[in-house]
Amino acid sequence: MPLPIAVLVSGGGSNLQSIIDRIEQGALDAEIRLVISNKAGAYGIERARKHGIPTLVLSHKDYPNREAFDKAMVDAMHKHGVTAPEGAVIMAGFMRIVTPVLLDAFPGRVINIHPALLPSFPGIHGQGDAADYGVKISGCTVHFVDEKMDHGPVIIQAAVPVNAGEDGGHLGPRILKLEHRIFPQAIQWLAENRLQVDGRHVHLKVGPERQVDQPMADVEPPVHALVWPPLEEGF
Amino acid sequence: MPLPIAVLVSGGGSNLQSIIDRIEQGALDAEIRLVISNKAGAYGIERARKHGIPTLVLSHKDYPNREAFDKAMVDAMHKHGVTAPEGAVIMAGFMRIVTPVLLDAFPGRVINIHPALLPSFPGIHGQGDAADYGVKISGCTVHFVDEKMDHGPVIIQAAVPVNAGEDGGHLGPRILKLEHRIFPQAIQWLAENRLQVDGRHVHLKVGPERQVDQPMADVEPPVHALVWPPLEEGF
Hints:
Mean pLDDT of chain A: 92
Strand content of chain A: 15-25%
Radius of gyration of chain A: 18 Å
Oligomer: homodimer
Strand order of the largest sheet of chain A: 3-2-1-4-5-6-7
């Protein structure tokens, strides 16, 4: 059975689109049972509708506190067949901190994507904060969600170059391209039950006919390293 | 004239060795006028002697405060012909925080290497802290030094994969290989006067017959990105 998932969005939903695309391409063995947005005009809702996926807008402003809002989301997910322990909750640009009400309803089954190489630049301006800091490498992170923002065990990361003086608006799209690749991959690993969490460490179990997370100590740089700015001749 | 540098070490000095090697290979246009260690037994001192480089051991314990210790280092560097604005101070595993006494003597000419992708994991256990956190990508950073530890403007960074469950002792050598490549490169850019600092942003100016720090927005992922664990088929 495909992994039953609910996708939570707050905005444009391009990560939602990448998940839909990978499912339709047959690479991602999941079924989106419900897309929830906390904002009425979120284009993510429109994307879901175009693909015949059930949608729900729940404004957090209609609830007295975070817990009540999370309870309403959990009830909706349950109603649509997304339940623990099989179901999973995918936060795809969902700009709300979730509470134990949601986390306890889906233990170890809530994942998030963040547009920075955590633990650098958590929060809602990951791309801009990285650009402002002047890092030469930034990226994105898919992680299990815990009660702290952008904090849980890391599943996969991607690193990209940052150029001196560029702003978050320029860096963001480059990171987003990688988000669209690593997020569906992480969900597929979840669907295959290949993610084993040991404290803060997420081990990727061997998959049938798939690559293995091997020790890399002997691998020489250029292949498995990203250096920015690029090394010049002689270095 | 080759860039006159003083190299500060506290330990094994393998980064010092990489600088010596690149100078001897003719790739790095610098001359090490003095190697200073704050620890008597540091193997870095032995490495310098083997290459006929003047050395000095100054124990910080012999000085009443950081400023007095820095003053002694500055005096020694001046005596050996490392002076502003041409000279530069290279912190290569130097485990002391420096003060304005040293920084003001070499404005914009003090650089450091750190074994993590700053601003993640500053401090003296960069490799172990990254491994413990469970990141999938870590690396190293060369940066200008300011009064805050591991904080100044970033010159170059390198990212490497981290495997689930490995410790700092396993990750460290993989990062160190990249340190040995990016640190001499950064010093060469300094020697060529190609580093232009604008606030926190370090611009790499075009070099004769060398690559340029180009906007990368149009570059497609696999070439200029590092993803870990690796993407599998279909992603």
